[in-house]
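User: I'm preparing a small set of examples for a lab meeting where we compare how different chains pack in three dimensions. I only have the primary sequence for this one, and I'd like the structure in token form so I can line it up with the others. Please keep the answer compact; I'll paste it straight into my notes.
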Amino acid sequence: MISYKKLRLLLVEREMSWQELIKGVGVSQDVGVKLRNDKYVSIFTLEKICNFLEVDVGEIMSFH
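Assistant: Understood. Below is the structure token output for the 64-residue chain.
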């Protein structure tokens, strides 16, 4: 199972809202909903998020 708990915690740590993330990355609201609910998003989208946040993919997600 994919978990984006690390991303949620990172946003809190950086005091960044989901809206700021979505706007900064340039993705749809649907992607934000998927991330908040630990649903599948494409590798391309994950790469865009990592580039925007300047982190490695392992810092925003985990597999259980």
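A couple of notes for your slides: The chain is about 55% helix and 5% strand. The chain has one domain: 2-63.

User: Perfect, thanks.
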